[in-house]
Amino acid sequence: MGLDMYLTKRRRGSDAEQELVAYWRKANQIHGWFERNLADGYIENCELYPVCLENLNCLMSDCRLVLSDRSKASDVLPCEEGFFFGSQVYDDYYFENLAETERMLAQVISDTTDDDELFYHAWW
Q1: Which residues contact 111 (CB under 8 A, 6 or more apart)?
Q2: Which DSSP helix (H) or strand (E) runs through 102?
Q3: In angstroms, rounded to a whole number, what is the distance separating the alpha carbons of residues 21 and 54?
Q4: Contact 121, 64 (CB under 8 A)
Q5: What is the pTM of this model?
């Protein structure tokens, strides 16, 4: 049990099943970023939230900023509390999540076309 987070895509206007393009487990700082930037501070469990490439570029930029200056972590990508959301410590696991997020987002951005819709959702 815990925080599972998904970024999916499908062809715009299609009702086909969504394709998983990124997955996080207990990366509560990333979930918090999506909450602040997509949902006015709170994401409902299992609800889909539209994401645009600009959102992903902003998140990737924030990850890079914190990776280049770890002292900015609590201001730029703070840990978030939640039931089974994982650690609230700025440790190696936290920074590994950011590096992995940067890699995943670079691939998603590269692979996404104007015909695609992106969605974020979380399950806990």
Answers
A1: 21
A2: helix 92-111
A3: 16
A4: no
A5: 0.94
Buried-state track 9-41, b at ≥16 Cβ within 10 A, e below 16 = bbeeeeeeebeebbebebbbbbbbbbbebbeee
pLDDT digits (tens, 9 = 90+) for 7-17: 999 999 898 99
Q: Which residue has the tokens 């969504």?
A: 18
pLDDT confidence tier of residue 67, bands split at 50, 70 and 90: very high
Q: Distance (Å, rounded) from C-alpha 90 to C-alpha 71?
A: 10
CA distances for 7 relative to 52, 72, 90, angstroms: 11, 25, 24
Quote the tokens at residue 83: 């039931």
